[in-house]
Fold these 2 entries.
Entry 1:
Amino acid sequence: MGSGVKDRVAIITGSGQGIGAGIARTLGAAGARVVVNDLVADKVEQAEADMRATGVDVVGVTADVSVAEGAEALVAGAVDAFGRVDILVNNVGIARDKYLSKMSEEDWDDVLRVNLKSQFLCCRAVSPLMMEQGHGRIVNVSSRAWLGGSGQANYAASKGAVVSLTRTLALEMARFGVTANCVAPALVDTPLFRGLKEEVQERLAKTVPMGRVGTPEDIGNAVLFLASDESSYITGQTLYVCGGRSLGAG
Ligand SMILES: NC(=O)c1ccc[n+]([C@@H]2O[C@H](COP(=O)([O-])OP(=O)(O)OC[C@H]3O[C@@H](n4cnc5c(N)ncnc54)[C@H](O)[C@@H]3O)[C@@H](O)[C@H]2O)c1
């Protein structure tokens, strides 16, 4: 194996659109062999076709990674196609923002299942492979919101738990050459963000010290480093990729 992520096999969950698609494009452009995944088959087919058109060695697996069968089918699909898994990027995530008094148990359970349990299930499915081969990179997508956010009890708790999960994985897998780290974005230009009213988009962009929202590629570039051979001595860390928005008032 070379340097960077060249010829490494990378699974990116929820990569049919948004940040996951940006991460998949970035890793693919750097020479990784890519497994795209989504709950929605049409999105998987589109992402796969787009990446193949740019010369990336890619396969798509449609699966719900928030249930054990889906997570296991995704890892099995990657092994069938490429024989190994070097990089797992746990990117799927949903939000069901509501003030606590209005939050249903379903809002709580759905967010915790998709944002947190999916990461546990996918990590559990790949960890024996990574430990056996003595190499692996796990990158979990958390959020600046793990610091707390009004109307986001479920989302913030799930993203904080992702940080704790990652630190624990890092400890358990360090001696096997497997690292686990988080990236924590804040505002990113995705279909979700574009769906907000234009004045809301502008107001939010002004809350970022750098004066702009992030792009999926901004997140992809941070993931690329944490997924690369060169980051081998970094584990259990959370890297904010948010134009300074995690720093407080400035
Ligand atoms: N967009 C932001 O501003 C922002 C900020 C901080 C953190 N994040 C985090 O980044 C990640 C990606 O966010 P995004 O904005 O790109 O989201 P998105 O909704 O645009 O894309 C997520 C994709 O994941 C898929 N998906 C959802 N549940 C799935 C499941 N169970 N199995 C497989 N696929 C599933 C969806 O179909 C969708 O295509 C999430 O974890 C999110 O919490 C986003």
Entry 2:
Amino acid sequence: MKKREIEYFQGCLVGGALGDALGWPIEFMKLNEIKRTYGENGLTHLVLSDDGKAQITDDTQMTMFTAEGLLRAESRLTNKGICHAPTVIYFAFQRWLFTQGYPKKKDIDFIYDGWLLEIDRLFASRAPGNSCISSLLKDEKGTKDNPTNNSKGCGAVMRSAPFGLFLDKDTAFEIAIETAALTHGHPTGQLAAGSLAFMIAEILEDQSIIAATFNTIDKLRNENESIECISKLEDAISLSQSDLSDVEAISMIGEGWIGEEALGIGVFCAIRYQNDFRQALIASVNHSGDSDSTGAITGNILGAYSGIDCIPKEWIQNTELIEEITQLANDLHRVYEDGDEWWRKYPGY
Ligand SMILES: [Mg+2]
């Protein structure tokens, strides 16, 4: 299957980072403000910071820690014979929380290691989502049966692409949902995360984006409380075939602050501009809502579909942490390697 080649893994994670970086400067701007600042067509180029790089935010940071957590869970499973992946990814999220300026948790102080913590740039705080921060600060872990809040914010779906790269589609769906439940108690927030993971896995099996969306809807029909996600995915498909402008269509899906809307906007943009990565990302961020998260999800989907070679080179060159993000994509693609070196890179906790 050609889609299993490494360029699609790289496209998925790098694509997400570019959408995040494109949308970040306008995350909190209304559309009229975006147009006033950047012109009638909105923001169509990366905004570079003082060091010449466009900045990624919590969406990409947490995606990186999700990927790291998955690889460390695999190390545990291979070496210990047993592993609960969401627990190992929970430790990865605690490392992310530490990068955001919060103290280490004393009862799990052994988990604060690994190569991501050696990257100074990852310690930047870029408007991290409140549901993620507040739930990770608690002593107890959220689960599907014992949620610690009722959030359906987009903070779970925006970080969930790596599940679809690393696991078969049904396992990706389940583990993405269980991992989402660590920080998001509402079923819709969890199902949006499972949906993105499932859809990425479908795309890697060579499905078109629209077929992957239909198959995700079918998958959701077997789940309780999935109507909100199903409805936004159906909207995304029908609106992508309509005569409505991008802005009009996106406004009918929502603003993307909540999981199912962010997913719907990402799917809409990826279907409508499936042959034009640049235009898909531009459409995905120029609205009054959560531009970096809708950009990240669009980039994940379309990057997995079209591969790294279809992503504008100058955007890749001008965005921070691309080398590290590519490294994670390569490691997710790689077959597990036994030995001390791999364990040192991805210890099983
Ligand atoms: Mg963000």
